[in-house]
Write a structure and sequence with these properties.
4 domains, 9-stranded mixed sheet, alpha/beta, Alpha-Beta Plaits, Rossmann fold, 21 helices, 595 residues, nucleotide-binding
């Protein structure tokens, strides 16, 4: 037996621009039944899931990719927790909060993480899939009898549970709250821990400023502090790493783990696998079809949960949710394989001084077919280095003779323009992308085609990031410079973009510089690395390009963090602080993979 899911993307469905192919070619419609019709109110297609035979013809003929039809195992039908309306997203199963533990939620964007948060925090009453006649609390509690979640929902029904949520989009906080960081924390600090949190998160110099003046990273950490300072039973952190450098991410991790240590239930959604691994006691994997349906797996240990996700297969439930597994290559590419004279750009020692900040860049080069990774704390001059190489900023000493063409993807992206994605891509390409070779080489692998007709202002953070990366790579230049390409991408997209970028650079003899704070992504993508050191906001010093293993070792030492290889997936894993492996590796000076 199968259970049918038919989902329509209302934004992509444009009946005025198509020939209503879904209605015309539906075999059930041809037999005289009304399986797909035009809804009189919304003027959009509507699918009757009960009589749909799951043939998928409508999916293939829709010119705008607006329809998703999926056949699910019928036993899932009894596990439906919430559905928003006809032909819309539905969630199956729920993760269970655990007292005194951090539970990490790992999955693609669009799998229902925000639905999970809203249900577990009491902001949304689960309707068990009955959006037309939703059940009362006694029926919901009966459904959960004999499970750990029954107690949780009893507390929600009796208004005994309070939840503290750190939202994904922190800039909304600056728009909604007039005042300084100090005023925001004072408003929420029910536990009397504000001073400790401000120190732990490195916010001492940010608290007297208005929220509107703060950087994305400062705003993110203030939001973490505000959420952690409330006195509630349940804490939820949605992507707490965004905009923060690796040092700041470890501070965020300590604050979140501190809540579990005092017996609180904590859940975290995070796409930086290094941080999630470091943070979580357990993992629950969310899988399904983005924006169509999401299923929550059973609870797993952190190590097993992350490996299962990378494999795309849940052995205990015998479910394959992705057709390929993500693998990590042990060989760390060395710079020796590049030929003399293959430099795209060589730069001497560069210096740049501002009134309160200076940066010094040791000499180096970027070679053909190479990705140069740049790592270091925020506010040390990484973006300034990129701009000097690009000729956008003039150094005070040292000059770059060779004028090279460079395409730059900035850290912060503009999403307030009301134009279709395809016209942004056409402009970057200098020609129409539809049917072009570039479409096949860049836009197909990055899965951008289905966004063509969407307006830029309606894109999610992850979609916008992929369009920005694609727009950068479409330009005809010598060197691609990408500032934080991982921001807002989910784990699958991060790995896919990293692997694509590396392949693109090698196959076409291009060169790229990538700045990012996701250690796993940088380990995966870089051939050699520049490490920035110094004092944030005052003085930055960049090394010459180093072989990846030397650079990672040096950087991890500054973090007081050691990495090992997972024996199964070969991905880099953080050793738990003060564990036997951690002590062994540090004492031998080998912070990066004990081989």
């Amino acid at each position: 037996m199968t259970h049918r899911v038919g989902v329509l993307d209302h934004e992509l469905c444009q009946p005025k621009k198509c020939g209503l192919e879904c209605i015309k070619y539906c075999p059930v419609n041809k037999s005289g039944a009304d399986c797909i019709v035009l809804n009189e109110e919304s003027k959009k297609a509507q699918i009757d899931e009960d009589i749909c035979n799951g043939c998928g013809i409508c999916v293939k003929v829709c010119p705008f990719d607006a329809i998703t039809i999926v056949n699910l195992a019928s036993e899932l039908a009894t596990d439906k927790i919430h559905q928003y309306g006809p032909n819309s997203f539905r969630l199956f199963k729920l993760p269970t909060p655990k007292k005194g533990e951090v539970v990490g939620l790992l999955g693609r964007n669009g799998m229902g993480k925000s639905t999970v948060v809203n249900i577990l925090s009491g902001n949304l009453k689960p309707n068990l899939g009955r959006y037309e006649n939703p059940p009362e609390w006694d029926e919901i509690l009966k459904y959960y009898s004999g499970t750990e979640l029954k107690q949780h929902f009893e507390k929600i029904e009796q208004n005994q549970i309070r939840a503290s949520i750190k939202p994904q989009q922190v800039h909304h906080i600056a728009q909604a709250f007039e005042g300084t960081g100090n005023e925001l924390i004072e408003k929420y600090d029910e536990r009397g821990v504000s001073r400790h949190l401000i120190k732990e998160l490195g916010l001492e110099n940010s608290m007297d400023h208005s929220l509107k003046e703060l950087s994305g990273g400062e705003l993110q950490r203030i939001a973490v502090a505000a959420a952690a300072s409330k006195d509630t039973e349940f804490y939820f952190f949605d992507e707490p790493s965004s905009y923060n450098d690796v040092f700041q991410r470890t501070g965020v991790a300590r604050v979140i783990q501190g809540l579990a240590k005092i017996g609180k239930s904590v859940m975290v959604v995070e796409h930086d696998l290094t941080l999630l691994d470091f943070l979580s006691d357990y993992i629950e994997v969310l899988y399904g079809e983005p924006a169509a349906y999401g299923i929550v797996s059973n609870i797993l240990s952190t190590k097993v949960g992350i490996n299962v996700f990378l494999d795309g297969y849940l052995p205990n439930e015998n479910v394959r949710f992705r057709d390929k597994k993500f693998s990590f290559d042990v060989s760390s590419s060395s710079t020796d394989e590049f030929q003399e004279g293959s430099e795209v750009v060589t730069y001497p020692k560069l210096e740049k001084k501002y009134p309160s900040f200076s940066v010094t860049i040791e000499p180096g080069q970027v070679r053909k077919g190479e990705v140069l990774g740049i790592m270091g704390a925020n506010a040390l001059g990484k973006t300034t280095m990129m701009k000097m190489i690009a000729g956008v900023e003039k150094p005070d000493s040292g000059s770059i003779d060779k004028k090279i063409k460079i395409a730059y993807k900035p850290q912060y992206l503009q999403n307030d323009i009301d134009v279709e994605v395809v016209s942004v891509l056409d402009k970057a390409n200098g020609d129409q992308v539809e049917g072009s070779l570039e479409e096949e080489q860049i836009l197909d692998p990055l899965k951008i085609k289905k966004l063509y007709n969407k307006s830029v202002k309606n894109l999610s953070g992850g979609e916008l990031q992929k369009v920005a990366v694609a727009s950068c790579l479409l330009q005809k230049v010598d060197l691609y410079a990408l500032d934080e390409p991982s921001a807002f991408l989910d784990v699958e997209d991060r790995i896919a973009v990293a692997k694509f970028l590396q392949k693109f650079v090698r196959s076409f003899g291009k060169s790229a510089i990538v700045i990012d704070h996701d250690l796993q992504l940088m380990d995966l993508i870089s051939d050699s690395m520049v490490i920035f050191e110094g004092e944030s906001g005052a003085a930055g010093v960049a090394t010459s390009p180093l072989p990846k293993a030397d650079a990672m070792n040096r950087f991890l030492k500054s973090l007081d963090m050691s990495f090992r290889r997972d024996e199964k997936s070969l991905r880099p894993r953080v050793n738990k602080l003060e564990s036997r492996l951690d002590k062994d590796q540090k004492s031998s000076g080998n912070f990066y993979y004990k081989n």
